[in-house]
Amino acid sequence: MKRLSLCVFLLCLLNGAGEEQYLETKRQQFEIQARELNEARQALEAYKSSFEALQKQKMDALIQKEADINATLAKIEKEKKANEVILQKTQESLQAVDQKSMGLVKEIYGQMKDNAVADVLSQMEASEASKIILSLEPRKVSSVLSKMEPTKASEITLLIKNQNEIEENDTNSTQTN
Fold first, then answer.
1. Are 136 and 144 in contact (CB under 8 A)?
2. How far apart are the C-alpha atoms of 159 and 7, rounded to whole Å?
3. Span 143-166, pLDDT tens digits
4. Could you tell me if 140 and 110 are in contact, meaning their C-beta atoms sit under 8 angstroms apart?
5. Taking the CB of residue 106, how many other CB atoms lie within 10 A of it?
């Protein structure tokens, strides 16, 4: 740019136009530069505005996605709690049914003669027979086991013993916690 100005100045001097023509040329150059700077500033401001608009648009989209995710998490948590309530009610119902059925079994086997109980339990799997034996009165249990085949009676007795040990371990572990 300096060279151009120098060339213009020298031409002006050579042509004899003088200082006025030189100053006019300089003024025109400054006007051109000012227009170019103004255009560059306007382009920069337009770019800045579009960038800010795009940034705001993306931020709004992220905020909306975050809100959607939070709503989904809240829905999942609500459903989880509802499922836990249903599970608890189902477990309570199953326990009530088990207690009622064991009460009924206890009543039925309690009214049967010891020989008949021994015969029926001998035909069952030992695990099922041990559950029924556990529901009976201790005096009836000893009488029924004495009337059963010794191997079957010992198998049931071992299952009862193991079941009692498991229950004692569970009780001890919950007491220490």
1. yes
2. 115
3. 888 899 999 988 988 888 887 676
4. yes
5. 16
Q: Find, among 163, 80, 149, the residue nearest to 121 by Cα.
A: 149
Whole-angstrom distance, CA of residue 145 vs CA of residue 130: 11
Tell me the pTM: 0.45
Q: Higher pLDDT residue, 101 or 34?
A: 34
Please determine, for residue 33, whether its predicted confidence score (pLDDT) is greater than 80.
yes
Alpha helices in the chain (DSSP H): 2-15, 18-111, 114-123, 126-135, 138-146, 150-176
**Rounded Cα–Cα distance for residues 163 and 128 (Å):** 12
Question: Phi and psi (nearest 5°) for 15?
Answer: -80, -15
In the block, residue with structure tokens 């100045």: 9
